[in-house]
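Contributing new records

If you add data, match the layout below exactly. Sequence lines come first and carry their own label; structure lines follow with theirs. Keep one chain per record. Anything else will be rejected by the validation script.
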Amino acid sequence: MEINSSYQKDSYKKDIEVTTNDPDKSTFKLTVLAMIRESLSIIPQYVNFGSVPANAKLDMPVKITNKGKDNVTVSLVNVNPAANFSISPKFKNMLIKPGKTKDLLLRLDSGMKSGVIEGSVLIRTSLPYIPQKIIPVSAAVIPR
């Protein structure tokens, strides 16, 4: 059995109903309980800047924590759309040791047009089982 734990935390429980050809017990229930150990934590997992005025610049901290036992290299942090979002500091191959956290700053430049801005932050890692994480980002730009 394989469980996608990308958006799971703490524990996962699933009941599975099994049908058999046993006349005394034609069905029974299996319960699968898994403890999720997050090896790479990114907080927040979703960024909503809410309603912001046109031509505003707002910042949101992003924390990447290595909760695993091995070093993690973040090779890329890319924002989309680049016209509205940026991330700092700029780096190349950021190493995060076990138990350590790196702080980034996501900046929104709302621009002059009102409307909804939807985008994402793409984080590429050296972990074979988590090659990338995507953080959805949104903001509702209102006229001044």
